[in-house]
Write a structure and sequence with these properties.
By secondary structure, the chain is an alpha/beta fold. Helix 9 runs antiparallel to helix 10. The longest helix is centred in the last third of the chain and has 29 residues. The termini are far apart.
Length: 407
């Protein structure tokens, strides 16, 4: 039997999703090679029917895409978030974030996942230090003091100095490493669809907290067939899981009526465009973010509730931290998979992630109910933040991914 040829590289990234490809691009430098392992055909991943979601890119994440040389490709299809309005059900009080309170830059952008994926794949193709193995599936790995060896499903071996798990909440690499996870099922499912509306959204994102879960209206940029920008929004409708099949089975008129009931009439007549998608929601957190010569990033480390639209931004902070440490170590001739580097990465990322996990989990549990005393307390809380400018600016900068706090 002929032995499959082996591949030698510096960093191995298992998972060519939005986080894995971004890490490859940020880590690849002259002299540092990266091999990305992805089981799905890239052409399939770029089709409109592959993924109906959009992603909220915080301002800091958008700056990372600019640094990778990809933002120019994304800008034309991105919807700028200029204002965020947060309201508890039908309360007359709300919290309003206006980007002008913290500067001239948008707070973030809404971009369709397929456009992000296409830009990242284009970046990978242009970088001579990155190899994309696809279709290729991870099977197992071994690590020792000298390096890591990954065995693929087809029998090939990829040898490197650091393995990164970017293969999602059901990470095979994480499982092979023996790292345990904690999971909490929210018993909620996100219904995702695109709505065309009569009036322009003017860059306003709205999050309404309803008893079943948040209902987010996210301003999109120009999409195919749109004669003018600002007339499409992405909806992330969190609903009790048992009811979701009923909503998905509705005819177009009945489903549009359900959307309009939650959406309101402030943007005029609504039309649901394209397919409806559903994604079960659960909180998944790894008990550790590293093992010998292996690190977790993105959903492999932490898959959080979409209530604040911060899941991908949290993963991109993993990417930025690990890429910075790896490139610095490589420039100094140090081991990019060394124990000290991984200990530093784990300490930094677990501390930051714990705060975001607690915030999103707590918000969802606080707002996803109709208990009268809690409704009163949270409504007053939103109003209080609205009328304390320093506190509001702090929350706004955190949402943008900017650490500096204005007084």
């Amino acid at each position: 039997m002929t032995q499959k040829p082996s591949i030698t590289t510096d960093m191995i990234v298992s998972g060519g999703g939005l986080a894995g490809m971004a890490l490859a691009l940020m880590a690849a430098r002259p002299g540092l090679s990266v091999t990305v392992i992805e089981p799905l055909d890239p052409a399939l991943q770029q089709e409109e029917g592959f993924d109906g979601r959009t992603t909220a890119l915080a301002y800091a994440t958008q700056q990372m895409f600019a640094g990778m040389g990809l933002w120019e490709e994304l800008a034309s299809s991105a919807g700028a978030i200029l204002d965020i309005r947060i309201v508890d059900a039908d309360s007359p009080l709300w919290l309003h974030y206006d980007h002008r309170e913290v500067g001239e830059n948008p707070m973030g952008y809404i971009v369709e996942n397929r456009h992000i994926r296409r830009a990242l794949l284009s970046g990978l193709a242009r970088n001579p230090h990155i190899s994309l193995l696809t279709p290729a599936s991870f099977r197992d790995y071994t690590a020792d003091a000298h390096g890591v060896a990954v065995t693929l499903a087809d029998g090939r071996t990829v040898n490197g100095r650091l393995l990164v798990a970017a293969d999602g909440r059901r990470s095979d690499v994480r499982s092979a490493s023996g790292i345990e996870v904690r999971e909490s099922d929210y018993r909620q499912t996100a219904i995702v669809c695109t709505v065309r509306h009569e009036k322009p959204h003017r860059g306003v994102a709205i999050e309404r907290f309803l008893p079943a879960g948040p209902f987010a209206i996210l301003p999109m940029g120009r999409i195919a067939g749109d004669e003018g920008s600002q007339h499409h929004s992405s909806l992330v409708w969190t609903e009790r899981r048992a009811l979701v099949p009923h909503f998905l089975a509705m005819d177009e008129a009945a489903f549009r009526a359900q959307v309009a009931q939650r959406f309101g009439d402030y943007l005029g007549v609504l039309e649901v465009v394209g397919s409806r998608w559903s994604y079960p929601l659960a909180l998944t957190t790894a008990t550790r973010y590293t093992a010998p010569r292996m690190a977790l990033i993105g959903d492999a480390a932490h898959a959080i509730h979409p209530i604040a639209g911060q899941g991908y931004n949290l993963g991109m902070r993993d990417v930025a931290q690990l890429a910075e440490q790896v490139t610095e170590a490589a420039s100094l001739g140090l081991d990019i998979g060394g124990a000290m580097l991984l200990e530093h990465y784990e300490a930094a990322r677990m501390a930051d992630s714990a705060l975001m996990i607690a915030a999103t989990d707590g918000l969802n549990r606080l707002f996803s109910n109709d208990f009268t005393p809690l409704r009163l307390a949270r409504t007053l809380g939103l109003a209080a933040v609205q009328h304390i400018p320093p506190l509001k600016r702090r929350f706004m900068r955190h949402a943008m991914g900017v650490k500096k706090v204005l007084g």
